[in-house]
Specification:
3-stranded mixed sheet, 11 helices, Rossmann fold, 332 residues, binds nicotinamide-adenine-dinucleotide, alpha/beta, globular
Length: 332
């Protein structure tokens, strides 16, 4: 058999022919109205897939409104903790991208029971409902590595430091045990999107620098690893495109050039914006993640990022001033 190109397509298959073939394929995206989903869905539609977004709209539906005109888009308002309702939406899927979750350690800490119900039990509902031939792409996280000396590869033992990391680690193991699955351990996302998350480190730093002109940073030397949200969306397409040629069921998704300390990120922002920064030596960040990640496995499969830190920070510095969040108690 001919070798697939970096994007997984066989030589001679044109983009238009591939898109026409993709129209037979239904991709269900759980959590599709969220930060990553809102960047993934338009790309799937663009590649010709039929797309069904399954989401309970805990942050509203604004991020997907513009897709309803698209003939290959559909939506079901379903909570993944409702097994029978979820089953009805995923049984005919060719591929499922599983993103629905309570995301991030602060939210999971605030709602610990719900975090387990959604992230673990909801994932079990999905696994119970899927036909064996349905391809499952699990949106996992590098948070699972926790605090690690040296560089994490996919074989590094997982050491989640928070309930969020614990639930994601558990669900990842369940998905891998099912088979016909790829777990994608993403770096921390950043960048503008229809549902931007301002709790993510770079987005948060940039927001504070842009709007408050002041930033307090704890644990300045902690190492983190980043990826632009549009490159996360591209990674899912990369995996679906070359499914039959994948050599592993787990991939770190990011780029070796995107491992930075918090202090590095502040320095890069300072090159673009004038703001005050206080590196606090007393006190600590509740987020104890300190790790750097090796991305050679996904790069060997032909995947490269397209947005580096400079471009991504430029986007945030240009775009964040347009977002205005008013104090709801202000009467002025
Ligand atoms: N953004 C990152 O940096 C990052 C990094 C690694 C992994 N991930 C993973 O990617 C996935 C998506 O993350 P995100 O950044 O888009 O988060 P998000 O919070 O923006 O999106 C989550 C979506 O899931 C939906 N949802 C939540 N509970 C649900 C339920 N019970 N039933 C149905 N829908 C539900 C929400 O309404 C939301 O639209 C998550 O699984 C997360 O763990 C994200």
């Amino acid at each position: 058999m001919a070798n697939p190109a970096a994007d997984g397509r066989l030589p001679g298959v044109t983009d238009a022919a591939q898109r026409a073939q993709n129209a037979d394929q239904l991709v269900v995206v759980t959590g599709g109205a969220g930060y990553i989903g809102s960047m993934l869905i338009p790309r799937l539609l663009d590649q010709g897939y039929r797309v069904r977004c399954v989401d309970n709209l805990m942050y509203g539906g604004q991020a997907i409104l513009h897709h309803f005109l698209h003939p290959r888009f559909s939506f079901a308002e379903v909570d993944i903790t409702d097994g029978p309702a979820l089953r009805r939406q995923v049984q005919d899927a060719d591929s499922v991208v599983h993103l629905a979750a309570l995301v991030g350690y602060p939210l999971c800490k605030k709602m610990p029971r719900r975090a387990v119900e959604v992230n673990v039990d909801g994932t079990q509902n999905l696994l119970d409902a899927l036909r064996p031939q349905t391809r499952l792409l699990y949106g996992s996280t590098g948070s699972n590595y926790g605090e690690v000396e040296g560089i994490c590869t996919e074989d590094t033992p997982l050491n989640p430091l928070s309930l969020y990391g614990e639930t994601k680690t558990k669900a990842e193991g369940m998905c891998r045990a099912r088979g016909n699955c790829v777990a994608m351990r993403f770096a921390t996302a950043f960048g503008l999107a229809p549902r931007i998350r301002l709790d993510l480190m770079i987005n948060d730093f940039a927001w504070q620098a842009v709007h408050n002109r002041y930033l307090v940073v704890y644990e300045r030397r902690f190492r983190r690893t980043f990826i632009h949200v549009s490159d996360i969306a591209r990674a899912f397409l990369h995996m679906i495109d070359r499914w039959d040629h994948l050599q592993h069921d787990i991939y770190n998704v990011g780029h070796d050039s995107m491992n930075y300390t918090k202090e590095d990120i502040v320095g890069l922002l300072k090159q673009r914006l004038d703001f005050l920064v206080h590196f606090a030596e007393i006190g600590s960040d509740d987020d104890k993640r300190d790790y750097a990640v090796d991305y050679s496995r996904i790069r060997a499969s032909g995947y490269e990022i397209t947005v580096d830190i400079d471009r991504g920070l430029g986007e945030l510095v240009a775009g964040l001033p347009l977002l205005r969040i008013r104090n709801p108690y202000s009467n002025v």
